[in-house]
Amino acid sequence: MSVTPPPVSSPTVAEVPKMGAYEIATGNFNRAADLIGLSDEWRTLIRTPFREMKVEVPLHREDGTMTVFQGYRIQHNGSRGPFKGGIRFSPLADEQEVKALAETMTYKTALVNIPFGGGKGGVNCDPRTLTEHELEHVTRRYVSRIHLILGPNRDVPAPDMGTNAQTMAWIVDQYGRQHGYNPAVVTGKPLELGGSPGRAQATGRGVMLTGLAAAKDHLGKDPNELRVAVQGFGNVGMNAALLFAEAGCTVVAVSDVSGGYHNPDGLDLDAVVRYKNREGGDGTLAGYDNGGVEYVSHADFMGVDCDMLVPAAIESAIHDENVDSVKAKLVVEGANLPVTPEADQILQDRGVLVIPDILANAGGVIVSYFEWSQNFQQYRWKEEDINARLEDIILTAYRDVIAEKARHDGASMRDAAFALAIARVQKAEKLRGAL
Ligand code: NAD
Q1: pLDDT digits (tens, 9 = 90+) for 252-261
Q2: What was the pLDDT predicted at 410?
Q3: 260 lines ligand 1 (CB under 6 A)
Q4: 231 Cα–ligand 1 center, Å
Q5: Ligand 1: does its nearest atom lie under 6 Å from the Cβ of 335?
């Protein structure tokens, strides 16, 4: 009997311009390296990834077709501890993007001074086009190909764009089949499988804490005087928006892949969340028009009138074509690499303070560190202790960056943050005897 092979299709690629994540990461590194006078040898040593793995991830679709995705796990630097960083499911994930994000994690863990290095993973699938069963299959296939380089003391993934606690549960299970059950191999798990209280809100909480600290220092404003706009209504954006509102801010606009939703008097965020989670909906805000809300296109979103702008969705969200429209005096980077170097310079020249990603969105990896610690201890901490420790660590890092900025005349918060982080990585490499 002859069997007809299923047709092979390429992965769906979203119609979005390719983002220069690696160029952004290079710009960030070079400016800070100049600031601290890092030699060329050290630049090469620190920037070169420790290990890059690229794997095929085949999927037999439920409709009988077959797709072969590309999967990556890049371990950038492990001098300060196990590699740490999320796994992203996105049609735009490629080697350059994952490499840039892995490197960003190295500096993030160093800046907030937790005992990890930096890594990142990605599969170039579009989770919105896959069924739950297909997503599980993709996750298991991917892990079965990279499991040898993972481990609680080796490389500890976490959720990122397009992945969530359920994905992490499949990873624990798949890893456990080969190595025995060990929840510390991944963070961002469901509570029932060793996840940590407070992890889901942690990145948004860090954005809120650093954003409010900077608003007080830079704008002299209390929360109830702040109008906030948030791009992205996923894990980071939604939780940040809710926490800003809880702190007393007026959230005037939010957006997601479907566009932006604006109300100058403040959005009813409970209604927005209910709409996002509505029965039969697609999980986006498409069509949301609750009283007084006007639709804003992606192109116009960065120009919404507000005091604080929080890009919490994608890379290169603020670039040379939309930067002039930015009205906010404070930009808090919820997403990774959301401002291009050219736009960053323009914002700095205009006196707009930018709180860089490696500081603003480090709350997730900080609580991942708590989750990992709890897994080793086999003891669950209370959520209020977790939130208090998160606040302590992230605000200490915020103050460290302010102090470093003061040491380098005219340096931006980003340059100061990267300078501090790179110096810590260099110190660890030296202590280990790298050169
Ligand atoms: P997510 O998948 O939960 O949410 C992404 C959101 O962005 C969705 O609401 C989506 O609709 C929206 N979006 C996509 N394209 C958009 C566009 N063009 N314009 C506006 N909105 C758009 O992802 P997430 O976990 O919230 O991650 C968002 C960003 O934050 C990523 O850069 C990620 O690397 C970074 N980050 C996430 C964490 C974490 O703990 N989840 C931690 C640190 C950094």
Answers
A1: 999 999 999 9
A2: 86
A3: no
A4: 9
A5: yes
Please indicate whether residue 159, judged by its CB atom, sits closer than 6 Å to ligand 1. Answer: yes
Ligand 1 mean position, distance from CA 377 (Å): 31
What does CATH list as the number for 49-192? 3.40.50.10860
The residue contributing the CA closest to ligand 1 atom 30 is 335
| Residue 198, CA atoms < 13 Å, CB-side half-sphere | 25
Instruction: Say how many Å lie between the CA of residue 409 and the centre of ligand 1.
Output: 34
Domain residue limits, the chain: 49-192, 200-360
Superfamily of domain 200-360: NAD(P)-binding Rossmann-like Domain (3.40.50.720)
- pLDDT value at position 290? 85
* Tokens 């704008």, located at residue: 219
- Residues 84, 108: contact at Cβ < 8 Å? no
User: How distant is the alpha carbon of residue 41 from its chain centre?
Assistant: 29
Distance of CA 54 to the CA centre of its chain: 21
Q: Look at ligand 1, atom 21, and give the residue with the nearest C-alpha.
A: 256
Q: Catalytic one among 99, 108, 120, 189?
A: 120
Is 364 close to ligand 1, i.e. is its CB under 6 Å away?
Answer: yes
Ligand 1 atom at shortest distance from the alpha carbon of 361:
43
107-143 in b/e form (b: 16+ CB < 10 A) is: bbbbbbebebbbbbbbbbbbbeebeeebbbbbbbbbb
Chain mean pLDDT for the chain: 94
The pLDDT of residue 434 is 59
Pull the structure tokens for residue 56.
Answer: 């095929």
pLDDT at residue 13, as a whole number: 31
Nearest CA to ligand 1 atom 5: 234
Tokens of 18: 């390719």
Is 108 in the active site?
Answer: no
The parts of the chain modelled with pLDDT lower than 70 are 1-19, 434-435
Is the whole model's pTM more than 0.70, yes or no?
A: yes
Q: Whose CA is nearest to atom 41 of ligand 1?
A: 160
pLDDT at 206: 98
- Please, what is the Cα angle at 358 between 376 and 406, to 5 degrees? 120
* Residue whose CA lies nearest to ligand 1 atom number 39: 160
Tell me, yes or no, if the two domains 49-192 and 200-360 fold the same way.
yes
* C-alpha torsion sign, points 284, 287, 289, 290: negative
